[in-house]
Amino acid sequence: MVARRRKCAARDPEDRIPSPLGYAEWISDYADSVPDPEALRVEVDTFMEAYDQKIAEEEAKAKEEEGVPDEEGWVKVTRRGRRPVLPRTEAASLRVLERERRKRSRKELLNFYAWQHRESKMEHLAQLRKKFEEDKQRIELLRAQRKFRPY
After folding, report:
1. Is this structure's pTM higher than 0.85?
2. Which strand (E) or helix (H) includes residue 102?
3. pLDDT attached to residue 100
């Protein structure tokens, strides 16, 4: 196996700095590829400041031009006066559908006919009787559990 060596710019063997080989070379390559977090933060901060300043200038320029006719008398129409658009997400569409369903249910007439009214009353009474029987059974069970058992 032939060892790989990097060429150095220096001609004198005493001035040569040995280059890393194997794992040491991979580690140094990786360390060189990872940016310094502080330098990266500074670079990002300066970019964002410049971007915010550019956006602010564009908004100020657009605000100045808004409603002012140009040399030919034309007025530039902008999007500022428009009302906000509904987002086209699944959650938003579900909210709209739910609202429409509630609106429709309010318009429906429940128990419009007399027989519907009678049936709903009878169903309600049947439900109350059923709950009453369940409660009676639960109370009997609780009474049975309260009996004194010394052993």
Report:
1. no
2. helix 90-107
3. 94
